[in-house]
Amino acid sequence: MFAIIGPTASGKSNLALELAKEFGYEILSLDSLSIYKEIDIASAKPSKEELKEIKHYGIDEIYPNEEFNVAKFIEIYKKIPHEKIIIVGGSSFYLKAMIDGISQMPPINKEIKEKAKRFSFKDIQQIDPLYANKISQNDTYRIQKAAQIYLATKLPPTEYFKLHPKIPILPQIPIFEIEISRDKLRERIKKRTKKMFEMGLIDEVAYLEKKYRDRRLPSLKAIGVKEVLDYFNGKYNKDELFEKIVTNTARLAKRQQIFNKTQFPQKISAPLEKLKEIIKRENLS
After folding, report:
1. Whole-number Å distance between alpha carbons of 271 and 10
2. Do 200 and 152 have their domain in common?
3. pTM above 0.90, yes or no
4. Cβ neighbours of residue 256 under 8 Å, at least 6 residues apart?
5. 164 and which of 36, 59, 103, 116 could share a cystine (Cβ 3.0–4.6 Å)?
């Protein structure tokens, strides 16, 4: 088992598919948008033919109005029946969580979930200032998780995590990163965004909005989706929409590159055209 990481549009998926075909591997997707059914174009997920040719996990697992988090991602991983897997995608946070492990959450019922939604960052500061110092005041996911832990256990999250330490899932895994310049990556992002438009991105988002009618869903806040929704509101014309998606995708790619640089010090990095041979030599020989 090994992982291929890199910024969005850098060529990870195609490289993983090539290696999977050549060496008989299956693929676990690290993409936080491909997890959703019906979001095919905006997520740039593999084609139906590619999905038939190579078994993929972590793709088309849930519907856009269903909740997803790292614990559920780890559940998907644990159900894979063997270890001949290439882990690939831009959401490296999931890979980091698997390497470091996560703490077991207490049982959370619907009543607790509803109560937790009313908690603010200031509430968490009062309950657990140590935990609050480690998160952003705009991080609604972690604020609600902290509130859920407190409501379920009557313990501040910091104390709960001391009693329930993280258990690593993948303590050691070879990680290979695609190196790419900002200029080259932006050109790849432009080409991919153009392809999304040609495939019907706007129609896909129109379908999603009509079916789910809730723009607050995390799946409808993803890059490529939220910009089209703004386009529907008259915020952009089509040319401006294209440029906005390209710009926001490039910003995401920059954040991904910074995360990968700081969180995976033992990775092997190389340009796309060289990485395949390095992986074959280091991991598949």
Report:
1. 10
2. no
3. no
4. 6, 7, 8, 90, 92
5. 103
CA gap 63, 145 in Å, rounded: 22
Terminus-to-terminus CA distance in the chain, angstroms? 13
- List, for residues 255-277, the tens digit of each pLDDT value: 999 999 999 988 999 999 999 99
Give the amino acid at 61: E
The CATH number of whichever domain residue 223 belongs to comes to 3.40.50.300
What total number of domains does the chain contain?
2
The domain boundary residue, chosen from 163, 180, 205 = 163
pLDDT, mean of residues 57-79: 92
What tokens were used for 81?
């029946």
Residues 218-239: tens digit of each pLDDT = 999 999 999 999 999 999 999 9
Q: Summarize the confidence of residues 157-166 as an average pLDDT.
A: 94
Cβ within 8 Å of residue 192, ≥6 positions away? 9, 44
Of all residues in the chain, the percent with pLDDT exceeding 70 is 100
Summarize pLDDT for 179-203 with one digit per residue, the tens.
Answer: 999 999 999 999 999 999 999 999 9
Average pLDDT over residues 53-70: 94
Q: What are the structure tokens assigned to 102, written together?
A: 């996560």
